[in-house]
Predict the 3D structure of the following.
Amino acid sequence: MTSYQFPEAFWWGSATASYQIEGAVNEGGRKPSVWDTFSATPGRTLNGDTGAVACDHYHRYEHDIDLMAQLGIQHYRFSIAWSRIIPDGRGTVNEQGIDFYKRLVDCLRDKGITPHATLFHWDSPQALEEAYGSWQSRQMAIDYADYVTAVVSRLGDRITHWMTLNEIPCFTHWGYGVDSDPPHAPGTRVSSLKQVWQTSHHALLAHGLGCQAIRAASPVPCSVSLVDNFAVTVPINESPDHIEAAKKAFHTCGQNGGIIFPALTGKYSPALLEKLGENAPDIQDGDLETIHQPLDVLGFNVYFGDYVRAVDNECGYEVIDFPEYYPKLNMPWLHILPDCIYWGIRHISETVGRPDLPIVITENGCAVADELNSQGEVIDIDRIFYLRQHLRSAHRAISEGYPLNGYFLWSLMDNFEWSYGYDRRFGLIYIDYPTQNRIPKASFDWYRECIRTNRVV
């Protein structure tokens, strides 16, 4: 039997995002983001919920950091709100916004917690949506790079771990829909798939320019990463033919071939370009060189995967539909497939051809139907089950020599879960939203023991 012991230098952390926890949307000089506008639009979010208050972390961050210290995490991933730093998206820097993040980071460091800052987690300024349609324009990448320079030049003495963008597919392919209402902000209808792919190409440009801006602006040596939720293809069994089928499918599953491939290799996957045909994005001279920046780490957000098998068709593979009663947790897509962590990491090394690139799991977790019992506790054994299996998969990757260096659990606390509002809970800490009371769940204690012993318990 294995003890599931992790390497001594392994990072244990947790993660959050600005719009999901901060609240205080009209304080400190902040102006609206696209998520303020989207969530205030009737019918866009469950129960009409918005992030206006969320977890009130803007006012309660010191108490929340005390809870992080109790948990024992050494690393905390959070995001910086563009609309707090440059409220109009471009132009004047709001020093009140900078000061908030200075206070936050100083408090983390005082508790011995290393800050890892994501520079964009979906909440772009509404002013840029009104000016030129956000990610529909190449100008978005330029304005993003200017914002990055403003942040890193002011906070780079305190933060040395930077992440450019969080999950390009979600704010582009889920934020723009062909003749349909997308589930994410800015929620823009477009007329062709080509226009959707153009938005993710512009986001890749923003990533590339952002990498350059971080390295130019940082006053000290720093680490630069991209965070992607690339789709994971898992062989139905680990025979050579099914493994090969999963590798083939990885190129065209989700948006992999047009996001993770150009970011890590400097080229769109030929298999994807062939599939897209005239819907492929327009790529200008020099774009791919800009996009393909050297990275210190790849951030991997992973919750589920897809099973693939080898079949005799023109592709050589088939992605298998989940049966109706396949086990899943409290999101419609949250099928339990722990091998997704192992295979995601392996695909970066073998399928994408980047065995040199260190990987950190920047999000992994699950929504369950948490409830307080009669003693005022949350005994979330379903979450513990999910996390235990996924961490064992992470351990397998390390034991086979793949370069996994850390794990950030999503999420530290329950929060505004985008279009699902406050109905879905991902946290280790239960938030009683009417009172803003914080109640650590059973999973909080379980994860604390994993961190204390540096193993899966």
In short: The longest helix spans residues 193-217.
